[in-house]
């Protein structure tokens, strides 16, 4: 994420360390892992291009302080109202984007920026790999890593001693070193040299309107991604549920520290969190240790990180991305709850086409529209169709009672039923049986009744003026 944002990779490591040691230690979520925010890559890139790397610390610091305030005000709990289909769609969309992007890293190739470009570029990538011996070797290492991840859990004794991801990385790294394969390795430099605390001139830039807009964008997107991810992580385990307000404050504290250090903004990362759950994590210590291990390897053993093949890490991420896609649940969901399945598919597709934040918003809007459609049931009851209810008075108005929930979604149906009433009889419309009626529907019904009765009176007046 750091490289894609146009900043040194070490800034991403600092954010990951802070995410473990600060955010991971604070109350909120028990198993959610925080780190560099992939969803903010484009925004960070644009901010760095516009204001420079030095200004990044101020942007992240103020965003963190705003998150702390939002959590203290209790705004985090509003993110609990998330449809299950949207959460599953979010996981599937992230999994698809992750797989598409890491296929390039699997071949030591540079990935396009957008999700669609990554997918459409795969045929060209396959052609490039087929014509390059070094790329084929990198792919072989990545595929071997995936194979170990799939097969290792079957060796129960080995799986108890060494988790599958660690075994896969260790074996792939050893094979790369033994055969001296010419493939890319992870590059890490000193962390202290990358720390860039913001100065007075950077704080002065907060007076600019564009900077304030960027800060608000950082705050809203980082908060939404973290709390959307928390909802998804809670579905992956049976442990303690997330306290959304406390988690929002924990994210804010982490971002404030990252801002002071001049590092990248932080969110909860669903891929790392899912991997944490899949590895058997049970307590908050797992997300703290994420930062501890990053700190140990980045500070004490930077050379150890430098021998790990990039293709190996890409293989781990491809496997993690596949695990996020609900392949087993989609067909049964389509058979039993087709509307929910459509929301899932559209959410996933929107994330691939746009980004995680916008994709989730599209999914939420669809879920709201679906709920509104399903709950807005209306029934029209008509009395007096026979001549005056059997009393011989054919001029008596029809009594029309509408019951249920009348919204603009059901307005066409309502008007069709009303249009089917006898045109020579006035209508007395009763809306007291409605549990809910929105303004658009109420106005439309009142207008229709007024016009209908006016036409009936006009026709009746014309008939009385025509001689027999």
From TrEMBL:
One of its GO terms (cellular component) is membrane. Pfam families: Sulfate_transp. Residues 2-347 form the SLC26A/SulP transporter domain. The chain crosses the membrane at residues 12-31, 51-75, 82-107, 135-152, 164-183, 203-222, 292-322, 342-369. It is found in: Membrane. Its main location: membrane. It comes from the Bacteria. Keywords: Membrane, Transmembrane, Transmembrane helix. One of its GO terms (biological process) is transmembrane transport. It is a multi-pass membrane protein. This is SLC26A/SulP transporter domain-containing protein. It comes from Streptomyces malaysiensis.
